[in-house]
Write a structure and sequence with these properties.
single chain; 303 residues; alpha/beta; Rossmann fold; 2 domains; six-stranded parallel beta sheet; elongated
Length: 303
């Protein structure tokens, strides 16, 4: 049974990646998983220099140390030096790639071709298809402005209005994110008068949106919310992109454009022309694929 140490900075997105990989590994073999809060950088440096890792003192030696987020890299290195195991980082590290046993890097970060690098389509997540998926259930996932995308509340509302008018038989739920501007969220609350179940993110429990996308036949996601786009695709929902202004040709925007070219998502403009979302040619299962690659490195799997 492999022992996992999951070192977390407790950011929801990073924790979701670690949890997604751990769940996929657990679906293939029994594992023993231990979560460890990442110590501060200075403390982690002292741990590394001393060859000790007090946060794991009471835990069994790890076979794998999984980290996600820059603040977890040095603690991961310190943990490996002190207790052994293979160090696996999710997302492109700021430290040299050769310092890690395995690097899982999204394709939009242009990972190099190396023996210890696994390119992934988006970031890993915990999404899974649900047997309770309902053909008449739809979901809007609303993000907000970022360094890669601007924002246009009026344009967004016009797109949602068009979708609602064209889908009278669909029961719609809408949720926001922490980046959604307050004014936009206030306007979206008005959609309740049209039968939309609007749930601001502040009123939802952790994991609620993931549960909703798993049982929805279709999901419309603002294209700035790349992680939610991949969660929808991983859950197996037909996925549409709500257009927001792009701030230049960034790597994130390029990644979204690639999803459109591959037919995995339907842009709003394309939906307007064809009148329907097309089902993706495949369901993404990146956590499963990476889990198999990680477990293949477990010495017991090669005996």
């Amino acid at each position: 049974m492999p022992t996992l140490w999951l070192i977390t900075d407790n950011k929801p997105g990073h924790r979701s990646q670690l949890q997604g990989l751990a769940q996929a590994m657990a679906a293939r073999t029994a594992i023993e998983a231990h979560w460890i809060d990442a110590p501060p950088g200075r403390t982690a440096l002292l741990h590394w220099l001393s060859g000790r890792f007090p946060p794991g003192a009471s835990l069994p030696d790890p076979d794998f140390i999984l980290v996600a987020g820059h603040r977890t890299h040095l603690p991961g290195l310190a943990a490996r030096r002190a207790r052994g195991g293979q160090l696996v980082t999710l997302m492109k590290p700021s430290l040299p790639l050769g310092w890690f046993d395995l690097c899982v890097i999204p394709q939009h970060d242009t990972p190099p071709t190396r023996a210890n690098v696994i390119p992934s389509r988006g970031v890993l997540n915990t999404a899974r298809p649900s047997p309770e998926r309902q053909a008449d259930k739809g979901l809007f996932l609303i993000g907000g402005p970022s360094k890669h995308f601007g924002w246009d509340s009026a344009g967004l509302l016009a797109q949602i209005d068009a979708i609602l008018a064209a889908t009278p038989g669909v029961r719609w739920t809408l949720t926001t994110s922490r980046r959604t501007p307050a004014q936009t969220e206030s306007t979206l609350l008005g959609l309740r008068t049209r039968g939309v179940d609007v749930r601001p993110v502040s009123g939802t429990a952790p994991g609620w949106a993931m549960e909703q996308v798993a049982c929805s036949a279709q999901a419309w996601v603002t294209e700035d919310s790349v992680s939610m786009v991949y969660e929808s695709l991983t859950a197996g929902a037909d996925t549409g992109l709500l257009a927001v202004p792009r701030l230049g040709d960034t790597r994130i925007a390029a990644g979204v454009a690639e999803l459109q070219r591959e037919g995995l998502v339907t842009a709003f403009a394309s939906w307007q022309q064809k009148g329907q979302l097309h089902a993706p040619p495949e369901r993404l299962a990146e956590a499963d694929r990476v889990a198999e690659a990680v477990l293949a490195r477990w010495p017991a799997a090669r005996d």
